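Fold Annotation — chain and its backbone
Encoding — discrete vocabulary of local shapes
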Amino acid sequence: MHIETPKKVVAKSQATVFEFLSDLKNFEQLMPDSIAKFELLNENRFLFQLKGMPEIVLERKAETPHSQIVLGAASEKLPFTLIADILEIEAAKSEVILSFTGEFNAMMAMMIKNPITNFMGTLSENLDNV
């Protein structure tokens, strides 16, 4: 399954957006209002839970300075990645595209597609908090 948010223009430089997203504790500011739990486990890993959903641990898998951050599920039970691609438009303006890719059976994919799409949309909208 692949879900991609529309391009989000952020009134910050590419480096500023990258630094914000590289500091994983900042993801708490991007979370939807339905967040039940957020905990920074270490500099490369955080746990979050939305109301009525199981806890998910995300960890930094890779990053390319100023242009991309790759987070992935720490559990092998639900293998997926969350990628933030950051493009410079001008000195104080950048564009962010969030994409989610996961390997799920058809039943699981059907159950999680809407919640994941909504979650990704909220993360993208909340990038104004950078």
The chain has a mean pLDDT of 94. DSSP finds three helices and eight strands in the chain. Residues 8 and 125 are 7 Å apart (CA to CA). The domain at 2-129 is CATH 3.30.530.20 (Alpha-D-Glucose-1,6-Bisphosphate; Chain A, domain 4).
